[in-house]
Automatic annotation (TrEMBL):
This is NIPSNAP domain-containing protein. GO terms for cellular component: mitochondrion. Residues 60-144, 173-270 form the NIPSNAP domain. Coiled coil: none annotated. Belongs to the NipSnap family. One of its GO terms (biological process) is mitophagy. It comes from Anopheles farauti. The lineage of its organism: Eukaryota, Metazoa, Ecdysozoa, Arthropoda, Hexapoda.
Amino acid sequence: MSLASLRHARVVLPQPVRTLTTGSALQKDESSWLSKLMVRKIEPTKNSHSRMLSDKFDIYELHTHNVRPDSVGKYLENYKNTVQIVQSKGNLSMELIGSWNVEVGDLDQCLHLWRYTGGFEMVDQAKLELSSDKNYVQLMQERGTFLRSRHLQYLLAFSYWPQLQLRQGKNIYEIRSYRLKPGTMIEWGNNWARAINHRQNNNEAFAGYFSQIGRLYNVHHIWCYKDLQGRKETRESAWRSPGWDECVAYTVPLIREMHCRILAPTEFSPTQ
């Protein structure tokens, strides 16, 4: 089967193994467990993954900036001024959702999440408008001197994720990023549409996205907690919820790489 066929396919995996026994039964169960790591059945579809996984017209822009350690303060002041310029323009269909410093993970790194209402047409319009603003362009040029590297992704929100709500008070965030095997995004969505029901105890689900442009087959889940202890207790409670272990058993074989970062909101972040 061609790679193009895999990209427009739904992957169906067998039921996860519940128990282990001995002898021939053990060999059978081990075979069943290993079979979950393989693609069992491919069903082609005429719909794009984005149409099947997202029912929203919003485009999300995730900036990942790796900052020089000696320039973090200057960088944050620069970005704050940039946000103010964007907010002063009433004709742009874009808004900042969150800005964070990484506290655990890739240190000296900042993430910024923007939302464009109206699709990629609004992205094009905003870029054209901002490119003609001399102050904005000057800040962009200055920011380059504070950075070691940067990356940009355009994302769509999963349709099954709870509606995004900005948070108040003192919180920390966790972004869990996954690189999936090509052709498995639909299966990921099918399983997480059920799995998200096990993660509602503490209103911790903030946002869930998958990539459209940038690193493809990327998924980002963003969670909100009061502190690290609250994160620990919330995650442990999910494992006590019947069915959560099955969701994990289904989704782990779909992942090629994963990592998490703990984030702290910047002073100018709309979500705190």
